[in-house]
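PT: before anyone asks, these are the final sequences, not the draft ones from last week. 1557 residues across everything. Please model them as a single complex and drop the result in this thread when it's through.
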Amino acid sequence: MKIIIKSLLFVLFAAVLSVTSCTKLDVKVKDPNSIATPTPGVAPTPSSLSKVYEQLNQLIGQGNWYAMSEHTTDELMGPTRGTDWDDFGTWRKLHLHTWDGAHNQINDTWNGINGALFQTTLLAESATADAATKAEAKFLRAYFSYIACDLWGQVQHRPATALVQDLPDVYTRSQAIDFIISELESIIPTLSSFTTATRNKATKEAAQFLLAKAYLNKAVFKQDPEDPAGPFTFAAADMNKVIQLADAIAANAALAIDDNYWDNFVWDNGTKSSENIFVRQNSQGINMVWASCMGNHYNMPPDGWNGFTTLADFYNSFTDGDVRKSKDITGFTDLTGRPAGFLIGQQRGPTAKHIGNPIVDLKDRSGNPLIFTPQVSLFFSTESKGIRTNKWPLNPAEMNAGGWGSTNEFAFFRLADLRLMKAEAILRGGTATGGETPASIVNGIRAKRGVANLGTVDLTALLAERGRELYLEAWRRNDMIRFGVFNAPVGERPQASDGTRVVFPIPNIALSSNPNLHQNAGY
Amino acid sequence: MLKSSPLFNNSIILMLMLMSFKKLLQIVVLPCLLLIAQQSFAQERTVTGKVTDSKDGSPIAGASVIPKGTTKGTSTGADGTYKITVGSNVTTLVITSVGFGRMEVDISGGKTTADASLAASADNLGEVIVSTGYGTRKVKDATGSVAAITTKDFNKGVISTPEQLFQGRTPGVTITPSNGEPGAAATINIRGTSSIRGNNDPLYVVDGVPLDGGGTSGGMSGIEGSTTPKNPLMFLNPNDIESVSILKDASSAAIYGSRGANGVIIITTKSGKGRAGAFSFSSNTSVSWAANRYDLLNAQDFLQAVKKANIDAGTSPADAAIAVLAVDKGASNDWQDEIFRTGISQNYNLSWGFSNKGTSLRLSGSYDNQEGIIKNSELQRATGRANFTQKFLANDRLKIEGMVSYGNVKNKYAPNSNNAGYQGSLIGAAIAYNPTYPIFGADGHYYDPGDGNRNPVEMLAYFDDKDNINRFLANISASFDITSGLIYKATYGYDNSKSLRKSFADPRLSSAVAGGTTNVFGVDYGNGISGNGRAVYQNNHQNTNLVEHTLTYNKTFGIHDINAVAGYSYQSTTGNGTADVAWGLNTPVVAPTDVFVKDINNFKNKKIAYLPWYFKYELQSYFGRVNYTINNKYLFTGTLRIDGSSKFGENNKYGTFPAFAAKWRLMNEDFAANSIGKIFSDFSIRANYGKLGSQDGLGAYDAVELLETYNGVVNNLHQGNKDLKWEEATTTGVGLDFALKGNRLSGTIDYYYTKRENLLFYGPVPGGFSATSNYFSNLPGFVKNKGVEVSLNYQALKKTKLRWDINYNMTFQHNKLYDFNVTVNTGGVNGQGLSGAYAQTFANGFPLFTWKMPEFLGFDGNGDARYADGAKDHLLGSALPTFTAGLTNNFSLGRWAASFFMNTSRGFFVYNNTANALFLKGSIKTAHNVTYAVANSPEDPINPGSVSSRFLEEGDFIRLSNASISYSFNIKSKAIKSLTASVSGQNLFLITNYTGLDPEVNVDHQLGGVPSRGFDYAGYPKARTVTLGINLGF
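LR: through. Structure below.
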C-alpha cells in the first residue's frame, strides 16, 4: 500500500510540476501540412486553383442561381402539388415575381456568389501565384462578377489583404460591367486557346465568350438603376465587339455546331460535343441527376421528385419534327421509355423503376394512369399535371444506382449561343461579317435541328429561337430582360410585373451586415 | 399485503408507486473537511459510541460526529460505530446524518462512550452539504442559490444518464430529453436559456474535475442523416453518485467564472465507509414499451380512405375504385408493430468499501443492458470505479485522495434521424408505409414497392450502426496542512475518451430504402448505396488534462469566521479523429441468403471523408473566494475569477468575472426571539450579484483564419475574428430561507434577474464576402431572464411509524431579447414539400425561440386552408415553458416506503412537424398512411401542408414521472446485513392536449448552426417502464 501511494505521489507531483508556468494561450494546430492558421498580420492565403474552380459547382443544381435564371421566365415553374412542393412558397414566388429580400434562394445565392468573389480575389491578387494562374482566377472572378451584376446590379469587392471584418466596397452596375470588360481584355492574351481537353478550364475562347456577353448586355447594365427594365440603347460599337469576338471564337477548328443537338447534353457529351466551350465535369464534383429528377415522376427511374414543369405556351413554340422538342435516343429511350426533350401524355417506363425491366404504362401514386398534361396550376396541381423536361439524359446503366455515376457535363458557354449572339448583334446595329445575316445564322442552326428555315429573322423571332435552342441552360432570364419582355405576363402570372423586378433585391442579411450596399429601386 | 395498509387502499396509482426504503436511502455525508479549526491538543481523550436509527435500532453508517463548537470530526462506519479524539474542553458531540434529525450528545465529565439514537426526519435540509466548487458548505450557510440532491431524492428505475436522477426535483432546473432513445442527450437549462448560440448546457464537475462539454459519440452515421449525439455523461454509473450539487446563480457559480454562465452541476461520487469492509449489491430488471403510439389506419380502412381521397380530388368513383386496385398489394401489416418491441433491461451493481485509520477505499463495478423500445436500439454499459483516501503524518496533515473510473458504452442505433426528407427515416417510414404492402416480395427479397417508399423492416435488417465508447477519468490530489488553517492542495485530472462508430448499409438495399444521397459528410462520392453498399467508420478521441493548485485558509477569531480559497487552474483539451467511407464489396451479396460481412476491409473502395482532424484548446484561470461570517448572523461571500481561453481572438483572450453575496440570518438577532422567532425557527434573507462568462459553441479555431491542405491542394476554410470576446451574463438575485417553528414546513424562495450580452453568434460576415457566409462575432443586443423559484418541504404526517413528507418546487420564468436588430431564423421544418421551410426566429422584444408562421384559420368550403392577413408571418409564443413544477410525496410505514413524483411544464408551444409532414389529407391521397383523425378531416387532398399555426400546439402537460414502493426485510442473518426489494415505474401517465406522442420533446432542427427548440418530428418515442429491483448489503 505504501509503495502504491508513494508512486502515486510521485506521478502527481511530476504532473503538477510539468505545468508550473503560465501559458500564453496561443492557438495550437498540429500539422502545418493539414490544417494551419497563417501567420498573423499576413494577407489571407488563397486556396489552390482547383479549389477556386470548385466555386462553379454551386451553379449546377435545381435551386439558387439556376432557379433564379429559369423559374422567373416562361420556361419553367414549380407548381405546388398537394403535400408536395409547397416548400415555403420559394418556387412560387420566383415564378410570380413576388420575391423579397428574405427569399431563401436569393440569400443563399448571394452568399455563394460573394464567397466565390472572395476566393477568386485572394488568388487573382495573390503575391505569389504565377501570371497564368492569376489570369484563370481573374476569369473566374469576372464570371462571378457578371452573375452578381446580372442578378443584383451591385458587385462587392475588397482587396485580398483586407480583414474579414472590413466592409467590402460596392461597384454600381455601370462600374461593374466596366470592371468586367477591362479585366477580361487584360487576361485574354495570357490565356491559352481552347482544346477539347481544356473545355473545363479558363481558355482564351471562354474569356472571349464572356466578354461578348458583357458587350451584348452592356446597354442593360448601363441603364438607369431607377428604371432598370429599359428600353435600352445598344451601341453599334458594342455590337461590333460582339461580332468580332464571335468570329474569333468560331475560328477555332475544335469548335463547330453539332450535327446531333443531343450530343451536347447526353451522358457522354464530354467526347461527343463540339459546341461546349466551358463546362464542369462529373469528376469535378457535380452531377446532373437533378436535371432529370426535378421533373420526373416518383415512379420514373431514377426516383424522380415530380416537381417542375415547363409552360404550355413555351412547349407550343416548338414545331413537330424539331429534334429539340422530342427525340428518341437509342440506348436510352428503349431502356427508360422516354425521349430526350419534353415529356407529355401517358408516361412509360420500366416496372419497379428498374432499368432492364419491361417498359409499361406508368401509374401515379394513387394508382391512376400517369399522364402529363399541358394544363397545370401553380397553386393546386395533382401529381401528373404539367409537361416535364429531359434535357440532360442520364446514362441508363447508372440509373439503378441513382444515376450519380452518369457523366453528363454542364456547359456554361456553348457555340450555338455565340452564333445566335452574333445574329442578335447584327440585328441590334452591328456590322455583318463573313457574308452572314441573322437569317443565315439562325437557319444554319435550324437545319441541324430538323426544322424548316425561317423567312425573316427579327428580334422577336430571334428570342423565340434562343428559347428553343438554349432552354433550361440558365440564360433565359438574361435574354428576356435584354429583349424587354421579362416582366410581361406568362401562363400562371397573368399580370405584368413591375420593371424593378429585372434585378433581385439585396438580401436583408447582406444589407444589414454591409452598409455600403443600398437596396435596389422598388424593394 | 399492500391492502393491510390503509394508506394504499385509496388509489390504484399508489399501487404503482416507487419504492425506496429509507434505510437504504441513508446518505452518508463526509465530514466537512474544509472548515478545519485548530484545536488545542493539550489534553485529549478518545470517545467511542454507536449511532442507530430510533425506529428499528439499525446502525446508521456515515453519520457525522463533530465536537460542538468545532468543524472537524469523524463519521460512523457501516456498523454505526465511531471513534473520535477530542480535547478535554469538549463536552458535547453533535451527531447528524442526512435524512435524520440532529442530536447533541453530552460527553462532559470525561465520558469516553456515547451512543446516539437518531430519528428520521426531513427537516434538516440545512445540514445537507453542498459542493460549492473548491470547497463545500452546508446548504444553510450558503449565501447564493444552490441546491443539493442526494440519493434519497434520486429518481428510480432505468437511469441511463446522471441527469435523469434529478430531473424535475429542483426548481429552476429544466431537463428536456431530446427523445426516448436509451442514453439520449437532454437539454439542461438552469434558470432558463439565455444564449442564442451556445448549447446552454451547464458545466459538469465530477469529483472536482470540470469536464469538457463535448463527448465523443458521433452525431451521424454517415448513412442515415443526422441524429442528436448521445449524452456525454452516459459513461458514469448513476449508482456511484453520492450527491449532485447545482450552483444556480452567479455568486455561487462564479468560482467557475468563464464556464459558469449556464450554471454548474457538481457530481460527487461515493467513497468508502465502514471500518470493516462492506459489500453492497443491487440488481434491476425492467420492462419498457412505447407509452403512446400513432392511431394509424388498418389495411382495410386505408384502402377506403385512399379511394375517398381520390374521389374528393375529382376522380370519378369508378376510376377511383380501379386506382385503389393498383395500391392494394393484399397484405395487412401494422408497421408500428414491426419496429417497436418490448424492451427488457438489466442492471447489476456491486461495490465494496471501508474506511479506517486514515484510509478509505471504495471499489465498484456495474453492468447495464438497456434495450430500446425500437428494434436494433440498445445501450450496454460496463463501469468500474475506485475512490481512495489516505492520510499521512501527525494529525493527518498530508492527505492523498484519488478517483479512477472507467466506462465502456456500446450503443446500437436504429436508422432514425432528426431531419428526414420526403421519405422519412425509420419512424416516419413506418408511419407512412402502405399497410397492404408485404414484408417480402415473391422473389424472397424484401418487398420494394418501387414508389420511393421505404420498407421499414428492410431498413432494420440492412442498416447496421453501432458504436463503442471508452472513457477513462482519473483525478488525484494531495493536500497539506501547512499551518493552522492553511492548506495547500494540488490536483491533477485526466479525462480520456475514445470512440469508434461503425455504420454499414447493405448493398441489397433497394434504391428507395437507401435514399438518394451519395454525399457523406459533405463529400460527394458519386455513387449510391444500392448495389454498392457502404461502410462508414468514425474514430473520435478526446483528451483533457487539468492541473490545479489551491490554497485554503480557515480561521475563527471570536465571532469572526473566515474561509478563503485562492487558486490557479490550467486545462487543455485535445481531440482528433477520422472518418473513413468504403463501398463496393469484394464478395458481392445478391441473394437474400448471402452473408454480408460487416468489415470495412471487405470493401474495394475506401476514402477518407474528413481530413484526419485535430484540435487543441486551453483554458487558464486564476481565482479566489472569501467566505466571511460574523457571529453566525451575517454571512458574506466574495469571488473573483480571471479566465483566459485560446478560443478567443488575439485581442480579447481574458475575461474577469467577479461576484458578491450576503446572507442575513434574522433568527439569530436579539429582536427575533420576541417577533419572528414566535413563528419561525429559521428566517434568513440572501442577496447576490455576479458576472459570468461563456465560450459555448466556439470551436478551437473559430477566431482565426484556417487553411486546410490535402493532397497538395490548399483550401481557405474560414476567416477569423480577432476581436471575438467572452459572452457575459450578469445576475442579480435575492432569496429567502425559512422554516416554521417545529420545522414541519420549510422552504426557500428566490428571485433572479440575468442579463446576457456580447452574445456569441455564428452570424453574417459583412456582405457575405468571405470563405463562409457566417463567422463568429459578438452580436449587439442582450437577453434578459427573470424568474421566481419556490421550494417547499412539508411533513404531512410525523408519527413514529408512519411518515409522509411532501416536497414541492415550482419556477416561473420569462425571457426576452432586447436591442436585437439582426435577422436570425431557425427551426427548419422537414419533410415532403417543406424544403427551405422554417418556423422559429429570434426577434427583438420577444422570448428566445419564438414561433414565426402564418396563422391558420381553418378550412374553407373546399377544404383548403385559410390564413390570417394573406398568410403573413405572425410571432406566436415561444418553445420555452414559463412555469414548471414538481411534486414529490414520500411515505414510510415501518419497513415499507413509497414515493411518487409528478411534474408539469406550462406556457410553451410545440411544433408538430410529424403532423405537418405526414398527417395531411394529401398523404392518404398519395397512398401514404395517416391517422384516423386525418382520414376523416374535411381537408382538400390537394391542399398544401404549408407551415402554419395549424401544427403549432400547446405543450402543457402533467406527468406521473416516477413512483416506487419498497420493502426492507428484517434480516437476522450475520452474513446479510440488509435486503430491500422494490418495484418502480417511470412515465406512468401523461395528461396533455398535445396530439403528438409526447410534448416533452426536442428534436434538433437547427438551421445554419442556430439551435432550435420544441420540435417534434417522428422522434424516438418515450417509454413506459416498470422495474423490479433488489438491494443487498453484506
